Amino acid sequence: MKISREEVLHVAELARLKFSNEEIDLFSRQLNDILVYIEKLNELDTEAVPATTHAHELKNRFRDDASSPSLSPEKALENAPEKEGSQFVVPRII
Amino acid sequence: MEFEAVIGLEVHCQLKTQSKIFCNCSADFGAPPNTHTCPVCLGMPGVLPVLNKKVVDYALKLALSTNCTINKKNVFARKHYFYPDLPKGYQISQYELPIAEHGWIEIETPKGGKRRIGITRIHMEEDAGKLIHHDTRPISYVDLNRTGTPLLEIVSEPDIRTPEEAGEYLKRLRELVRYLGISDGNMEEGSLRCDANISLRPKGETKFGTKAELKNMNSFRHVQRALEYEIRRQTALLLDGKQVEQETRLWDEARGVTLPMRGKEEAHDYRYFPDPDLVPLEIDEAWIKEIKKTLPELPQEKRRRFVEEYGLGSDDAMVLTSSKELAEFFEATLKGFNEPKKVANWIMVELMKFLNQDGIEIHECRVTPTHMAELLGLIEKGTISGKMAKEVLEKVYKTGTSPGEIVEKEGLSQVSDEDTLHAVCQEVMDENPKEVEKYRAGKKKVIGFLVGQVMKKTKGKANPKRVNEILIELLG
Ligand SMILES: [Zn+2]
Questions:
Q1: Fewest CB within 10 angstroms: B5, B49, B234, B356, which?
Q2: Is residue A12 within 8 angstroms of chain B, CB to CB?
């Protein structure tokens, strides 16, 4: 096994996801299959290949430091489940 | 047993750019809630962040001024955690390949020596939004104007040994970002924020003890007080044979204690990975060279030059270079009145007295270097006394009128006409026969009283030195 049941539970916890026992078993198996499949790549000799973070060769794409109008607060808050005035409202966290 | 503190600081510095780091929203502060947001900084699906080039320029300025090695290749990474002020569920930051590493800042030690505090790394990242907790209801308000404004995080090595050194390091860092013009560097307003890691170990030990992370310190004073408290707390624990817990603690300024922070614990598991939305950043020599050209003379160099070129003491040089504007004021005044020590004194003692009273900076006041030079010239020429000059300076400070004009308009120039002075001295002697008698009987000290009377009669416009001479002549 590439990934343990505990690791799957931990990742679910970090992502704030709740699963039934059956689902955890299923996802553990599926994640494991994926990891085993990806493991195949390790068979390649990549010693001489520099590590990369992106699939394409683009680099240095910039914006100039200039501002342009933002959304109206009404628009920005349109999807908010709860709001007051122009503020989002969330359950108190501290 | 004697303990030694091991302190490292993490400073977040808000950059003074016009727009946010990855979108066009304004990075200005103080706007009504949620008026500076767009799909990018709100974390809507399918949007693409694009890096603000000025943020890189500013990061390079700081990296070069803190003796860092600049990484040619930079990658942005996602740092994942859930918090209501972070709409995307991750913060775009830098992890494995930050823009700069392995630098140092020089600080002055209390004994007048110098010490280098290492800088582990400097990286670019976006700020989170602002939460305002309701007084009575169990809710918090979220304002996302600050979300995505650019920050530099500056992480020091655990080289700091005392709360004073921590304060000194912060002062030097603040001075630097202000000289570079990349940040307001204001701790009270949150443009400079500082967290501290602190552990204790027996003196002579080289291994580190268990550290606590301190947060919620909103001024230099808070940082020093929190560290002092934490040293006392950890010392007591260790002397009791107890363990220091590895935890995050919040400084409570009102009670003067640090308290463990609840919630948000869950042993940091940020699951960093390269942000696929942002292409790698490559910094070449040409770019670095270009930025080097824009660097001003830095505080340390300026201090050295002020000592060497103007013969100032190092304390005076320190005060005069504490801000770029003050140093510029000093040097501009010298152009009109080239006596560095006198100029330094008048600025540091007389002018700064007014500035401190009103809590303003030199560039916010009405006195210009031209005024200052003119004023000192008037003393030099004997037009006004030093004492009168102080009053004139106050008037310049209040009105912005030039010293020459004030002296002229208010008829403040010294009475230097000998006949008039003689006459006034004689008058004062006639009015005070007892004092004259005392003087002649050997009580030479009463001359001070007589000089005072002459000054009073001339409304301070006589040259006291000359008055003294004339009186001695007449009394003798
Ligand atoms: Zn935006």
A1: B356
A2: no
Residue A67 forms part of a structural domain: no
Q: Do A76 and B24 touch (CB under 8 A)?
A: no
In a domain, A85, yes or no: no
Provide the 3-class DSSP secondary structure of residue B194.
Answer: strand
What CA–CA distance (Å, rounded) separates B258 from B7? 16
Which tens digits make up the pLDDT trace of A41-81? Answer: 888 898 888 888 888 889 999 999 999 999 999 999 999 99
Residue A30 lies in a domain: yes
Nearest CA-CA distance, residue A60 and chain B, Å = 5
pTM surpassing 0.90? no
- In order of start, what are the domains of chain B with their CATH numbers? 3-289 (no CATH), 297-409 (no CATH), 418-475 (1.10.10.410)
Instruction: Please report whether residue A48 resides in a domain.
Output: no
Spacing, Cα B23 to ligand 1 middle (Å): 5
ipTM over 0.85: yes
Residues of chain A neighbouring B276 (CB-CB closer than 8 A)? 54
In whole angstroms, give the CA distance from residue A52 to residue B279: 11
Q: What's the CA gap between B435 and B249, in Å, rounded?
A: 71
CATH for A35 = 1.10.20
Instruction: Work out the percent of chain B whose per-residue pLDDT is above 70.
Output: 98
Per-residue pLDDT band at B262 (split at 50, 70, 90) = low
Domain count, chain A: 1
Instruction: Measure the CA–CA gap between A85 and B139, rounded to whole angstroms.
Output: 14
| 3 state SS of A84 | strand
